Amino acid sequence: MLSFRNIECYSELIDENEFFKQFYNPDLPLRYDSNFFQLKYQPTLSEFELIEEMQYQFHANEGLKHMKFYWPENKGFTSEIMAYFEKEHYAIEMLELYTIDPKNFESDKQTSNIKVYSLSKENLVDFKRINYPNDLIFGKEFADMKKNMYEQMLDNPSIIPYIAYVDSEPAGSLISVIGEETVEIDDLLTVTHLRKQGVATALQEAVMTFAQKNSKQVILVADGDDTPKDMYLKQNYTCIGFRLGAQKVFAK
């Protein structure tokens, strides 16, 4: 059964016990989704405070600037945990997991004028350039880190980024992650002034073609508050679960 366990976090599992799994990537310290605890159960407040202290000590020792916790799939926060997060100024997120059989993908967008290519040394500069403004939202240090991450993807056979062009102009991109049963769509992006022209559809069609040839399901994660999830439902994706997260950045 597909779940958030099928989602790539660009990290390594470094510790596991009956309470949580710990993921850590020293090469991506500013990518909070690569450095976190995945809880296995619903803790009481006192239990969570002990878990929180464990992560704080580890992250502080490793020079990380945040704490992040994911709750078990399809479980909400208790009222006492929610009150604690509000008091401690945690940011809360809800992620939704979507899946589709690639042969069922539908769209009324015309994409014949859009060319889609897998990432190569020849188009890497374009790929980095169109992603940089979006990455820069999280700070220059983060955006520069992502540039290095994109370069490393060229040598990773399980990751296939795509870039789309409209009339030879770089128009959008996504990253596909190849799993045993799935192909994950990540970081789907359309350049602002080229939106509503079918760029996102063309990029997804490239993934659907690959997935269908290799007998894999397509999955993606959407923020619970994002409007693109309405597009996914129209394209025949199905929401199969949610996951709550809590994140806190250390005060400078």
From TrEMBL:
Sequence intervals crossing the membrane: none
Record GO terms (molecular function): acyltransferase activity, transferring groups other than amino-acyl groups
Gene3D superfamilies: 3.40.630.30
InterPro entries membership: Acyl_CoA_acyltransferase (IPR016181), DUF5613 (IPR040549), GNAT_dom (IPR000182)
Taxonomy, superkingdom: Bacteria
Pfam families given in the database record: Acetyltransf_10, DUF5613
Name the UniProt record assigns to this protein: N-acetyltransferase domain-containing protein
Upper taxonomic lineage: Bacteria, Bacillati, Bacillota, Bacilli, Lactobacillales
